[in-house]
Protein backbone atom coordinates (compact mmCIF):
# COMPACT_ATOMS: atom_id res chain seq x y z
CA UNK A 1 0.00 0.00 0.00
CA UNK A 2 1.16 3.46 -0.68
CA UNK A 3 0.27 6.98 0.34
CA UNK A 4 2.01 8.88 -2.45
CA UNK A 5 1.08 9.63 -6.06
CA UNK A 6 1.93 6.25 -7.53
CA UNK A 7 -1.07 4.47 -9.04
CA UNK A 8 -2.01 1.20 -7.41
CA UNK A 9 -4.58 -1.35 -8.47
CA UNK A 10 -6.86 -1.48 -5.46
CA UNK A 11 -10.34 -2.57 -4.36
CA UNK A 12 -12.83 0.17 -3.53
CA UNK A 13 -13.14 -1.07 0.04
CA UNK A 14 -9.38 -1.00 0.64
CA UNK A 15 -9.18 2.41 -1.01
CA UNK A 16 -11.75 3.80 1.42
CA UNK A 17 -9.87 2.27 4.35
CA UNK A 18 -6.45 3.61 3.33
CA UNK A 19 -7.95 7.03 2.55
CA UNK A 20 -9.43 7.11 6.06
CA UNK A 21 -5.97 6.39 7.46
CA UNK A 22 -4.45 9.19 5.36
CA UNK A 23 -7.23 11.57 6.41
CA UNK A 24 -6.14 11.10 10.00
CA UNK A 25 -8.97 8.86 11.19
CA UNK A 26 -7.95 8.04 14.77
CA UNK A 27 -10.74 5.62 15.62
CA UNK A 28 -12.53 2.95 13.63
CA UNK A 29 -15.39 0.97 15.13
CA UNK A 30 -17.27 -1.56 13.07
CA UNK A 31 -18.90 -4.93 12.70
CA UNK A 32 -18.35 -7.15 9.64
CA UNK A 33 -20.91 -7.44 6.86
CA UNK A 34 -20.59 -8.25 3.16
CA UNK A 35 -19.81 -6.41 0.88
CA UNK A 36 -17.70 -4.01 2.98
CA UNK A 37 -15.87 -6.34 5.39
CA UNK A 38 -12.50 -5.55 3.76
CA UNK A 39 -12.65 -2.04 5.25
CA UNK A 40 -12.60 -3.37 8.80
CA UNK A 41 -10.20 -6.16 7.87
CA UNK A 42 -7.67 -3.67 6.50
CA UNK A 43 -8.01 -1.25 9.39
CA UNK A 44 -7.77 -3.99 12.03
CA UNK A 45 -4.10 -4.32 11.13
CA UNK A 46 -3.30 -0.81 9.97
CA UNK A 47 -4.73 1.06 12.96
CA UNK A 48 -2.83 -1.13 15.38
CA UNK A 49 0.37 -0.57 13.41
CA UNK A 50 -0.13 3.20 13.70
CA UNK A 51 -1.13 3.16 17.36
CA UNK A 52 -4.68 4.26 16.58
CA UNK A 53 -7.93 2.72 17.81
CA UNK A 54 -9.68 -0.20 16.12
CA UNK A 55 -12.54 -2.00 17.82
CA UNK A 56 -14.55 -4.81 16.29
CA UNK A 57 -17.72 -3.83 18.11
CA UNK A 58 -20.28 -6.25 19.55
CA UNK A 59 -22.90 -4.88 17.18
CA UNK A 60 -23.55 -2.06 14.74
CA UNK A 61 -25.41 -0.24 17.47
CA UNK A 62 -22.29 -0.44 19.62
CA UNK A 63 -20.07 0.67 16.74
CA UNK A 64 -21.97 3.86 15.84
CA UNK A 65 -22.28 4.88 19.48
CA UNK A 66 -18.53 4.40 19.93
CA UNK A 67 -18.00 6.62 16.88
CA UNK A 68 -20.22 9.28 18.47
CA UNK A 69 -18.23 9.10 21.69
CA UNK A 70 -14.93 9.46 19.87
CA UNK A 71 -16.21 12.26 17.63
CA UNK A 72 -17.42 14.18 20.68
CA UNK A 73 -13.79 14.47 21.79
CA UNK A 74 -12.91 16.10 18.47
CA UNK A 75 -10.96 13.23 16.89
CA UNK A 76 -11.74 11.90 13.44
CA UNK A 77 -13.75 8.72 13.79
CA UNK A 78 -15.50 6.40 11.38
CA UNK A 79 -17.60 3.29 11.00
CA UNK A 80 -18.55 1.36 7.90
CA UNK A 81 -21.30 -1.10 7.18
CA UNK A 82 -23.87 -2.12 4.61
CA UNK A 83 -27.58 -1.51 4.07
CA UNK A 84 -29.47 -3.69 6.58
CA UNK A 85 -26.82 -3.00 9.23
CA UNK A 86 -26.75 0.74 8.44
CA UNK A 87 -30.44 0.61 9.39
CA UNK A 88 -29.37 -0.34 12.90
CA UNK A 89 -27.43 2.93 13.15
CA UNK A 90 -30.24 5.30 12.23
CA UNK A 91 -31.21 6.30 15.75
CA UNK A 92 -27.60 7.27 16.45
CA UNK A 93 -27.36 9.27 13.22
CA UNK A 94 -30.36 11.33 14.30
CA UNK A 95 -28.68 11.95 17.67
CA UNK A 96 -25.32 12.72 16.04
CA UNK A 97 -27.00 15.26 13.77
CA UNK A 98 -28.66 16.99 16.70
CA UNK A 99 -25.45 16.77 18.77
CA UNK A 100 -23.56 18.11 15.73
CA UNK A 101 -20.96 15.37 15.91
CA UNK A 102 -18.54 14.99 12.98
CA UNK A 103 -19.05 11.25 12.45
CA UNK A 104 -18.19 9.58 9.16
CA UNK A 105 -20.27 6.58 8.11
CA UNK A 106 -19.54 4.48 5.04
CA UNK A 107 -22.44 2.55 3.51
CA UNK A 108 -21.40 0.03 0.85
CA UNK A 109 -24.91 -0.76 -0.36
CA UNK A 110 -26.33 -4.22 -0.89
CA UNK A 111 -29.90 -5.28 -1.55
CA UNK A 112 -32.86 -4.52 0.71
CA UNK A 113 -35.40 -4.21 2.16
CA UNK A 114 -34.97 -6.38 5.22
CA UNK A 115 -31.91 -8.60 5.23
CA UNK A 116 -31.70 -8.64 1.42
CA UNK A 117 -29.00 -10.57 -0.34
CA UNK A 118 -25.48 -9.37 -1.08
CA UNK A 119 -26.20 -8.22 -4.64
CA UNK A 120 -25.08 -4.65 -5.22
CA UNK A 121 -27.92 -2.10 -5.27
CA UNK A 122 -28.68 1.59 -4.78
CA UNK A 123 -31.77 1.17 -2.63
CA UNK A 124 -30.56 3.19 0.36
CA UNK A 125 -30.77 6.53 -1.43
CA UNK A 126 -33.92 7.56 0.45
CA UNK A 127 -32.58 6.42 3.81
CA UNK A 128 -29.32 8.30 3.31
CA UNK A 129 -30.82 11.47 1.85
CA UNK A 130 -34.07 11.73 3.78
CA UNK A 131 -32.91 10.02 6.95
CA UNK A 132 -33.92 6.82 8.69
CA UNK A 133 -33.81 8.39 12.13
CA UNK A 134 -36.39 10.63 13.76
CA UNK A 135 -36.70 14.37 13.49
CA UNK A 136 -35.64 17.07 11.07
CA UNK A 137 -32.03 16.42 10.21
CA UNK A 138 -29.69 16.18 7.26
CA UNK A 139 -26.68 14.01 6.60
CA UNK A 140 -24.17 15.18 4.04
CA UNK A 141 -24.21 12.34 1.49
CA UNK A 142 -21.36 11.77 -0.99
CA UNK A 143 -21.59 9.18 -3.78
CA UNK A 144 -18.36 7.98 -5.43
CA UNK A 145 -18.44 6.52 -8.95
CA UNK A 146 -14.88 5.20 -9.28
CA UNK A 147 -12.24 3.76 -6.96
CA UNK A 148 -10.30 7.02 -7.28
CA UNK A 149 -13.36 8.83 -5.96
CA UNK A 150 -13.59 6.35 -3.09
CA UNK A 151 -10.29 7.94 -2.06
CA UNK A 152 -11.13 11.56 -2.88
CA UNK A 153 -14.59 11.55 -1.32
CA UNK A 154 -13.40 9.76 1.83
CA UNK A 155 -10.97 12.65 2.28
CA UNK A 156 -13.77 15.09 1.70
CA UNK A 157 -16.10 13.25 4.10
CA UNK A 158 -13.67 13.73 7.01
CA UNK A 159 -13.14 17.36 6.15
CA UNK A 160 -16.81 18.29 5.74
CA UNK A 161 -17.78 16.40 8.92
CA UNK A 162 -15.46 18.56 11.00
CA UNK A 163 -15.87 21.77 9.04
CA UNK A 164 -19.63 21.78 9.58
CA UNK A 165 -19.91 19.55 12.67
CA UNK A 166 -22.31 17.37 10.72
CA UNK A 167 -22.45 13.60 10.14
CA UNK A 168 -21.34 12.58 6.65
CA UNK A 169 -22.27 9.41 4.82
CA UNK A 170 -20.16 8.02 2.00
CA UNK A 171 -22.73 6.13 -0.08
CA UNK A 172 -20.91 3.51 -2.15
CA UNK A 173 -22.23 0.21 -3.47
CA UNK A 174 -21.17 -3.43 -3.54
CA UNK A 175 -19.88 -3.16 -7.08
CA UNK A 176 -17.57 -0.30 -6.18
CA UNK A 177 -16.48 -1.97 -2.93
CA UNK A 178 -15.50 -5.20 -4.65
CA UNK A 179 -13.98 -3.98 -7.91
CA UNK A 180 -10.34 -3.01 -8.42
CA UNK A 181 -9.18 -0.03 -10.41
CA UNK A 182 -5.99 2.05 -10.48
CA UNK A 183 -6.07 4.89 -7.95
CA UNK A 184 -3.53 7.17 -6.35
CA UNK A 185 -3.75 8.49 -2.81
CA UNK A 186 -1.64 11.63 -2.82
CA UNK A 187 -1.82 13.51 0.46
CA UNK A 188 -4.92 14.43 2.47
CA UNK A 189 -5.71 17.69 0.66
CA UNK A 190 -7.69 19.60 3.30
CA UNK A 191 -6.63 21.80 6.19
CA UNK A 192 -7.10 20.55 9.76
CA UNK A 193 -10.21 22.00 11.36
CA UNK A 194 -9.91 23.62 14.78
CA UNK A 195 -12.30 21.79 17.10
CA UNK A 196 -11.04 23.33 20.34
CA UNK A 197 -14.11 25.53 20.82
CA UNK A 198 -16.51 22.63 21.30
CA UNK A 199 -14.70 19.30 21.70
CA UNK A 200 -15.06 17.48 25.01
CA UNK A 201 -11.46 17.22 26.06
CA UNK A 202 -11.72 17.51 29.83
CA UNK A 203 -12.74 20.68 31.68
CA UNK A 204 -9.50 21.32 33.53
CA UNK A 205 -8.80 25.07 33.51
CA UNK A 206 -11.94 25.87 31.58
CA UNK A 207 -15.70 25.85 32.00
CA UNK A 208 -17.41 22.49 31.58
CA UNK A 209 -19.16 21.80 28.28
CA UNK A 210 -22.08 19.60 27.45
CA UNK A 211 -23.22 18.14 24.14
CA UNK A 212 -26.79 16.89 24.13
CA UNK A 213 -29.72 16.65 21.80
CA UNK A 214 -32.62 17.83 23.91
CA UNK A 215 -33.80 21.31 24.86
CA UNK A 216 -36.49 21.34 27.51
CA UNK A 217 -37.47 24.87 26.58
CA UNK A 218 -39.72 25.05 23.51
CA UNK A 219 -38.14 28.20 22.14
CA UNK A 220 -34.65 26.77 22.49
CA UNK A 221 -35.74 23.55 20.79
CA UNK A 222 -37.19 25.49 17.86
CA UNK A 223 -34.05 27.60 17.71
CA UNK A 224 -31.84 24.49 17.67
CA UNK A 225 -33.75 22.88 14.80
CA UNK A 226 -33.71 26.15 12.84
CA UNK A 227 -29.97 26.52 13.47
CA UNK A 228 -29.36 23.02 12.12
CA UNK A 229 -31.34 23.87 9.02
CA UNK A 230 -29.64 27.22 8.54
CA UNK A 231 -26.34 25.34 8.74
CA UNK A 232 -27.48 22.93 6.06
CA UNK A 233 -28.49 25.83 3.82
CA UNK A 234 -24.92 27.07 4.09
CA UNK A 235 -23.66 23.57 3.29
CA UNK A 236 -25.96 23.48 0.23
CA UNK A 237 -24.68 26.88 -0.83
CA UNK A 238 -21.01 25.96 -0.54
CA UNK A 239 -20.67 22.23 -1.00
CA UNK A 240 -23.18 21.07 -3.63
CA UNK A 241 -21.17 19.28 -6.29
CA UNK A 242 -22.12 17.56 -9.53
CA UNK A 243 -20.70 16.63 -12.90
CA UNK A 244 -22.13 17.43 -16.31
CA UNK A 245 -21.15 15.92 -19.63
CA UNK A 246 -22.21 17.36 -22.96
CA UNK A 247 -25.42 18.87 -21.61
CA UNK A 248 -25.03 22.12 -23.60
CA UNK A 249 -26.61 20.92 -26.83
CA UNK A 250 -28.39 17.90 -25.33
CA UNK A 251 -32.09 17.25 -25.88
CA UNK A 252 -32.14 14.46 -23.33
CA UNK A 253 -30.05 14.25 -20.16
CA UNK A 254 -29.27 10.92 -18.48
CA UNK A 255 -29.01 11.22 -14.70
CA UNK A 256 -27.33 8.67 -12.43
CA UNK A 257 -25.38 8.56 -9.19
CA UNK A 258 -22.52 6.39 -7.93
CA UNK A 259 -21.05 3.67 -10.09
CA UNK A 260 -24.01 3.75 -12.52
CA UNK A 261 -22.49 7.02 -13.80
CA UNK A 262 -19.94 4.95 -15.74
CA UNK A 263 -22.69 3.21 -17.69
CA UNK A 264 -24.68 6.35 -18.57
CA UNK A 265 -21.53 8.05 -19.85
CA UNK A 266 -20.91 5.13 -22.20
CA UNK A 267 -24.59 5.04 -23.20
CA UNK A 268 -24.42 8.76 -23.97
CA UNK A 269 -21.60 8.16 -26.48
CA UNK A 270 -23.53 5.36 -28.19
CA UNK A 271 -26.66 7.55 -28.40
CA UNK A 272 -24.65 10.44 -29.85
CA UNK A 273 -23.21 8.11 -32.51
CA UNK A 274 -26.80 7.27 -33.41
CA UNK A 275 -27.57 10.96 -33.83
CA UNK A 276 -29.43 11.40 -30.53
CA UNK A 277 -28.25 14.45 -28.63
CA UNK A 278 -27.77 12.98 -25.18
CA UNK A 279 -25.93 14.42 -22.20
CA UNK A 280 -25.19 13.22 -18.68
CA UNK A 281 -25.70 14.72 -15.25
CA UNK A 282 -24.40 13.20 -12.07
CA UNK A 283 -24.86 14.53 -8.53
CA UNK A 284 -21.70 13.95 -6.47
CA UNK A 285 -23.41 15.24 -3.32
CA UNK A 286 -26.78 13.51 -3.02
CA UNK A 287 -27.52 15.71 -0.04
CA UNK A 288 -27.29 18.64 -0.67
CA UNK A 289 -28.83 17.72 -4.05
CA UNK A 290 -28.11 19.92 -7.10
CA UNK A 291 -31.76 20.93 -7.55
CA UNK A 292 -30.92 24.32 -9.02
CA UNK A 293 -28.66 22.96 -11.73
CA UNK A 294 -31.21 20.35 -12.83
CA UNK A 295 -33.95 22.95 -12.76
CA UNK A 296 -31.89 25.19 -15.04
CA UNK A 297 -31.40 22.37 -17.54
CA UNK A 298 -35.17 21.71 -17.45
CA UNK A 299 -35.82 25.40 -18.11
CA UNK A 300 -33.83 25.02 -21.34
CA UNK A 301 -36.35 22.38 -22.39
CA UNK A 302 -34.19 19.30 -21.84
CA UNK A 303 -35.89 16.02 -20.92
CA UNK A 304 -34.42 13.63 -18.35
CA UNK A 305 -33.97 9.90 -17.98
CA UNK A 306 -32.97 8.80 -14.48
CA UNK A 307 -31.02 5.53 -14.43
CA UNK A 308 -30.67 3.81 -11.07
CA UNK A 309 -30.51 0.45 -9.30
CA UNK A 310 -33.62 0.86 -7.16
CA UNK A 311 -37.32 1.37 -7.82
CA UNK A 312 -36.96 5.09 -8.57
CA UNK A 313 -35.69 6.95 -5.51
CA UNK A 314 -33.48 9.70 -6.98
CA UNK A 315 -36.09 9.84 -9.78
CA UNK A 316 -38.37 11.70 -7.35
CA UNK A 317 -35.70 14.27 -6.52
CA UNK A 318 -35.09 14.93 -10.21
CA UNK A 319 -38.84 15.34 -10.78
CA UNK A 320 -39.00 17.70 -7.81
CA UNK A 321 -36.15 19.77 -9.29
CA UNK A 322 -37.72 19.82 -12.75
CA UNK A 323 -41.05 21.08 -11.38
CA UNK A 324 -42.98 19.80 -14.37
CA UNK A 325 -41.01 21.90 -16.88
CA UNK A 326 -40.00 18.86 -18.92
CA UNK A 327 -40.42 15.11 -19.12
CA UNK A 328 -38.64 12.86 -16.58
CA UNK A 329 -38.52 9.10 -17.21
CA UNK A 330 -37.09 6.26 -15.18
CA UNK A 331 -34.90 3.37 -16.33
CA UNK A 332 -34.13 1.07 -13.45
CA UNK A 333 -33.64 -2.39 -12.01
CA UNK A 334 -34.26 -3.37 -8.39
CA UNK A 335 -30.81 -4.84 -7.67
CA UNK A 336 -28.10 -7.20 -8.93
CA UNK A 337 -26.71 -6.96 -12.45
CA UNK A 338 -26.08 -3.26 -13.21
CA UNK A 339 -28.11 -2.02 -16.19
CA UNK A 340 -25.88 -2.53 -19.20
CA UNK A 341 -24.96 0.18 -21.67
CA UNK A 342 -27.07 -1.61 -24.31
CA UNK A 343 -30.11 -1.76 -22.01
CA UNK A 344 -29.80 1.94 -21.21
CA UNK A 345 -29.46 2.85 -24.89
CA UNK A 346 -32.51 0.85 -25.98
CA UNK A 347 -34.55 2.14 -23.03
CA UNK A 348 -33.73 5.75 -23.91
CA UNK A 349 -34.65 5.10 -27.54
CA UNK A 350 -37.94 3.71 -26.31
CA UNK A 351 -38.57 6.78 -24.19
CA UNK A 352 -37.87 9.00 -27.21
CA UNK A 353 -40.38 7.06 -29.27
CA UNK A 354 -42.96 8.10 -26.71
CA UNK A 355 -42.79 4.81 -24.83
CA UNK A 356 -44.05 4.93 -21.31
CA UNK A 357 -41.88 5.06 -18.23
CA UNK A 358 -39.70 1.97 -18.18
CA UNK A 359 -38.89 -0.46 -15.48
CA UNK A 360 -36.50 -3.17 -16.53
CA UNK A 361 -37.57 -6.36 -14.81
CA UNK A 362 -36.00 -9.78 -15.16
CA UNK B 1 -12.10 1.06 -27.64
CA UNK B 2 -12.92 -1.37 -24.83
CA UNK B 3 -11.91 -5.02 -24.59
CA UNK B 4 -13.01 -7.38 -21.87
CA UNK B 5 -11.73 -10.69 -20.51
CA UNK B 6 -13.33 -13.28 -18.27
CA UNK B 7 -11.13 -15.69 -16.31
CA UNK B 8 -12.96 -18.69 -14.91
CA UNK B 9 -12.17 -22.00 -13.22
CA UNK B 10 -12.21 -23.84 -9.90
CA UNK B 11 -11.64 -21.99 -6.65
CA UNK B 12 -7.94 -22.58 -5.92
CA UNK B 13 -6.74 -22.39 -9.55
CA UNK B 14 -5.59 -18.82 -9.08
CA UNK B 15 -8.32 -17.30 -11.24
CA UNK B 16 -8.63 -14.03 -9.30
CA UNK B 17 -4.84 -13.74 -9.16
CA UNK B 18 -4.48 -14.27 -12.92
CA UNK B 19 -7.00 -11.47 -13.46
CA UNK B 20 -5.16 -9.26 -10.98
CA UNK B 21 -1.88 -9.80 -12.81
CA UNK B 22 -3.49 -8.94 -16.16
CA UNK B 23 -5.13 -5.82 -14.69
CA UNK B 24 -1.81 -4.72 -13.20
CA UNK B 25 -0.10 -5.31 -16.56
CA UNK B 26 -2.60 -3.00 -18.26
CA UNK B 27 -2.23 -0.40 -15.50
CA UNK B 28 1.57 -0.46 -15.85
CA UNK B 29 1.14 -0.02 -19.60
CA UNK B 30 -0.81 3.15 -18.81
CA UNK B 31 -4.28 1.96 -19.80
CA UNK B 32 -7.56 2.34 -17.95
CA UNK B 33 -8.60 -0.96 -16.45
CA UNK B 34 -11.09 -2.49 -14.02
CA UNK B 35 -11.24 -5.87 -12.28
CA UNK B 36 -14.49 -7.24 -10.95
CA UNK B 37 -14.84 -10.62 -9.20
CA UNK B 38 -17.82 -12.93 -9.39
CA UNK B 39 -19.86 -11.89 -6.48
CA UNK B 40 -22.07 -14.20 -4.47
CA UNK B 41 -21.91 -16.96 -1.90
CA UNK B 42 -18.85 -18.75 -3.26
CA UNK B 43 -17.19 -21.78 -1.70
CA UNK B 44 -13.93 -23.65 -1.89
CA UNK B 45 -13.98 -26.11 -4.76
CA UNK B 46 -16.80 -24.21 -6.47
CA UNK B 47 -16.38 -22.12 -9.58
CA UNK B 48 -14.91 -18.66 -9.55
CA UNK B 49 -14.49 -15.97 -12.17
CA UNK B 50 -13.45 -12.39 -12.63
CA UNK B 51 -13.81 -9.87 -15.41
CA UNK B 52 -11.22 -7.38 -16.62
CA UNK B 53 -12.13 -4.45 -18.84
CA UNK B 54 -9.39 -2.43 -20.50
CA UNK B 55 -9.91 0.81 -22.35
CA UNK B 56 -7.98 3.68 -23.90
CA UNK B 57 -10.53 6.07 -22.42
CA UNK B 58 -12.61 5.71 -19.25
CA UNK B 59 -13.89 2.20 -18.54
CA UNK B 60 -17.69 2.17 -18.75
CA UNK B 61 -19.57 -0.83 -17.42
CA UNK B 62 -17.24 -3.07 -15.38
CA UNK B 63 -19.44 -6.14 -15.73
CA UNK B 64 -20.73 -6.92 -19.19
CA UNK B 65 -23.13 -9.46 -20.61
CA UNK B 66 -20.68 -10.82 -23.18
CA UNK B 67 -16.92 -10.94 -23.54
CA UNK B 68 -14.19 -10.59 -26.14
CA UNK B 69 -12.00 -13.23 -24.48
CA UNK B 70 -12.86 -16.05 -22.09
CA UNK B 71 -9.98 -17.86 -20.39
CA UNK B 72 -11.39 -21.04 -18.89
CA UNK B 73 -9.46 -23.48 -16.74
CA UNK B 74 -12.06 -26.21 -16.18
CA UNK B 75 -14.92 -27.93 -18.01
CA UNK B 76 -17.79 -26.22 -16.12
CA UNK B 77 -16.36 -22.82 -16.96
CA UNK B 78 -15.94 -23.79 -20.62
CA UNK B 79 -19.55 -24.94 -20.83
CA UNK B 80 -20.82 -21.79 -19.15
CA UNK B 81 -18.69 -19.09 -20.76
CA UNK B 82 -18.48 -20.44 -24.31
CA UNK B 83 -22.02 -19.07 -24.61
CA UNK B 84 -20.96 -15.61 -23.45
CA UNK B 85 -18.13 -15.03 -25.94
CA UNK B 86 -19.01 -12.38 -28.53
CA UNK B 87 -19.25 -13.51 -32.15
CA UNK B 88 -15.71 -13.25 -33.48
CA UNK B 89 -14.32 -13.51 -29.94
CA UNK B 90 -11.92 -16.08 -28.55
CA UNK B 91 -12.06 -18.76 -25.89
CA UNK B 92 -8.74 -19.91 -24.44
CA UNK B 93 -9.22 -23.27 -22.69
CA UNK B 94 -7.12 -25.49 -20.47
CA UNK B 95 -7.21 -28.68 -22.53
CA UNK B 96 -5.79 -30.76 -19.66
CA UNK B 97 -9.21 -30.44 -18.02
CA UNK B 98 -11.43 -29.32 -20.89
CA UNK B 99 -12.61 -31.54 -23.72
CA UNK B 100 -11.70 -30.13 -27.13
CA UNK B 101 -15.18 -29.47 -28.49
CA UNK B 102 -16.41 -26.59 -30.63
CA UNK B 103 -20.05 -25.98 -29.80
CA UNK B 104 -20.23 -22.72 -31.81
CA UNK B 105 -18.69 -21.88 -35.15
CA UNK B 106 -18.60 -18.08 -34.84
CA UNK B 107 -15.78 -17.88 -32.27
CA UNK B 108 -12.12 -18.88 -32.13
CA UNK B 109 -10.92 -21.74 -29.96
CA UNK B 110 -7.46 -21.98 -28.42
CA UNK B 111 -6.75 -25.20 -26.51
CA UNK B 112 -3.59 -25.27 -24.38
CA UNK B 113 -2.77 -28.07 -21.91
CA UNK B 114 -2.16 -25.53 -19.15
CA UNK B 115 -2.18 -27.82 -16.11
CA UNK B 116 0.18 -30.25 -17.87
CA UNK B 117 2.57 -27.44 -18.81
CA UNK B 118 2.46 -26.20 -15.23
CA UNK B 119 3.14 -29.68 -13.88
CA UNK B 120 6.09 -29.95 -16.28
CA UNK B 121 7.49 -26.88 -14.49
CA UNK B 122 7.08 -28.68 -11.19
CA UNK B 123 3.74 -27.45 -9.85
CA UNK B 124 0.15 -27.11 -11.02
CA UNK B 125 -0.02 -23.92 -8.96
CA UNK B 126 1.28 -21.87 -11.91
CA UNK B 127 -1.53 -23.01 -14.24
CA UNK B 128 -3.02 -19.54 -13.97
CA UNK B 129 0.17 -17.85 -15.16
CA UNK B 130 0.50 -20.38 -18.00
CA UNK B 131 -2.98 -19.25 -19.06
CA UNK B 132 -1.80 -15.64 -19.18
CA UNK B 133 1.06 -16.61 -21.49
CA UNK B 134 -1.42 -18.47 -23.71
CA UNK B 135 -3.67 -15.43 -23.80
CA UNK B 136 -0.76 -13.17 -24.77
CA UNK B 137 0.06 -15.43 -27.72
CA UNK B 138 -3.41 -14.94 -29.25
CA UNK B 139 -4.41 -11.47 -28.04
CA UNK B 140 -2.37 -8.60 -29.51
CA UNK B 141 -3.22 -6.09 -26.77
CA UNK B 142 -1.90 -8.38 -24.02
CA UNK B 143 1.86 -7.97 -24.01
CA UNK B 144 4.23 -10.37 -22.29
CA UNK B 145 6.65 -7.66 -21.19
CA UNK B 146 3.87 -5.99 -19.19
CA UNK B 147 2.55 -9.32 -17.90
CA UNK B 148 6.06 -9.95 -16.55
CA UNK B 149 5.95 -6.57 -14.80
CA UNK B 150 2.48 -7.42 -13.53
CA UNK B 151 3.80 -10.69 -12.04
CA UNK B 152 6.61 -8.79 -10.32
CA UNK B 153 4.22 -6.19 -8.97
CA UNK B 154 1.71 -8.69 -7.63
CA UNK B 155 4.23 -11.11 -6.11
CA UNK B 156 6.24 -8.15 -4.87
CA UNK B 157 9.02 -8.38 -2.33
CA UNK B 158 7.26 -10.95 -0.15
CA UNK B 159 7.21 -13.70 -2.76
CA UNK B 160 10.25 -12.67 -4.76
CA UNK B 161 11.60 -16.22 -4.84
CA UNK B 162 8.57 -17.30 -6.88
CA UNK B 163 9.16 -14.78 -9.67
CA UNK B 164 11.59 -16.90 -11.79
CA UNK B 165 9.19 -19.88 -11.77
CA UNK B 166 6.31 -17.64 -12.82
CA UNK B 167 8.39 -16.10 -15.61
CA UNK B 168 8.96 -19.62 -16.96
CA UNK B 169 5.22 -20.29 -16.65
CA UNK B 170 4.53 -17.16 -18.69
CA UNK B 171 6.71 -18.57 -21.50
CA UNK B 172 5.52 -22.18 -21.19
CA UNK B 173 2.78 -21.99 -23.76
CA UNK B 174 4.91 -20.16 -26.33
CA UNK B 175 6.94 -23.20 -27.22
CA UNK B 176 4.63 -24.58 -29.82
CA UNK B 177 1.99 -25.62 -27.32
CA UNK B 178 -0.80 -23.38 -28.59
CA UNK B 179 -3.15 -25.42 -30.75
CATH architecture descriptor name of chain B:
3-Layer(aba) Sandwich
What is the CATH architecture assignment of the largest domain in chain A? 3-Layer(aba) Sandwich
What is the helix/strand order of chain A? EHEHEHEHHEHEHEHEHEEHEEHEHEH
Helix content of chain A: 40-55%
- At the first level of CATH, the class of the largest domain in chain A is Alpha Beta
Derived from helix and strand composition plus strand pairing, the structural class of chain A reads alpha/beta
As laid out across the biggest beta sheet of chain A, the strand order is: 3-2-4-5-7-6-12
What is Rg of chain A? 21 Å
Name the overall outline of chain A: globular
Count of all domains of chain B: 1
Task: State the assembly state of the protein chains.
Answer: heterodimer
Polypeptide structure, described:
The complex is a heterodimer of chains A (362) and B (179). Chain A has 362 residues and is of the alpha/beta class. Chain A folds into two domains: 8-192 and 227-238, Thiamin diphosphate (ThDP)-binding fold, Pyr/PP domains (Rossmann fold, 3-Layer(aba) Sandwich), CATH 3.40.50; 244-352, Rossmann fold (3-Layer(aba) Sandwich). Chain A is built from 13 helices and 14 strands. In chain A, strands 3-2-4-5-7-6-12 form a seven-stranded mixed sheet, with helices on both faces. In chain A, helix 7 links the parallel strand 6 and strand 7. Chain A starts with 7 loop residues before the first strand and ends in a 10-residue tail after the last helix. The mean pLDDT of chain A is 95. The longest helix of chain B is centred in the first third of the chain and has 14 residues, at 15-28. The model of chain B has no long low-confidence stretch (mean pLDDT 93). Chain B has a single domain (2-172), classed as 3-Layer(aba) Sandwich (Pyruvate-ferredoxin Oxidoreductase, domain 3). Chain B contains six helices and six strands; from the N terminus they run βαβββαββαααα. In chain B, 48% of the residues are buried. Chain B has helices at residues 15-28, 75-81, 114-120, 127-138, 144-155, 163-172, and strands at 2-10, 32-37, 47-55, 67-72, 85-94, 108-112. In chain B, helix 1 (15-28) packs across helix 5 and helix 4 (127-138) crosses helix 6 (163-172). By secondary structure, chain B is α/β, with parallel strands linked by helices. Chain B has a six-stranded mixed sheet with strand order 2-3-1-4-5-6, with helices on both faces. Classes of the chains: A alpha/beta (362), B alpha/beta (179).
Amino acid sequence: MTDNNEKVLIKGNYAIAQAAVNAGCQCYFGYPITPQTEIGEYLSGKMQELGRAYVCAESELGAINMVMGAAATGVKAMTSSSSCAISLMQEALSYASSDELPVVVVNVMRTGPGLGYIYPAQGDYNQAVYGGGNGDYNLIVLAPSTVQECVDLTYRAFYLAQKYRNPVMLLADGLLGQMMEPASFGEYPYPEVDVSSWALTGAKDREARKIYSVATDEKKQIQHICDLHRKFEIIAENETTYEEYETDDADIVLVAFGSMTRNIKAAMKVLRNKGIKAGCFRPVTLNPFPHKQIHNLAKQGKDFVVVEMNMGQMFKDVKYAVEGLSKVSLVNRACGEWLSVEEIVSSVENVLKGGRQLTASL
Amino acid sequence: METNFIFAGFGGQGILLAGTILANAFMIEGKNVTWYPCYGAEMRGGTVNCEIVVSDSEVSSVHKQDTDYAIVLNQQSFDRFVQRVKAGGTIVANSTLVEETRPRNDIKYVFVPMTKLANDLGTSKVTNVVSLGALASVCPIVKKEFLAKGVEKVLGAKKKDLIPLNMKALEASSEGAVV
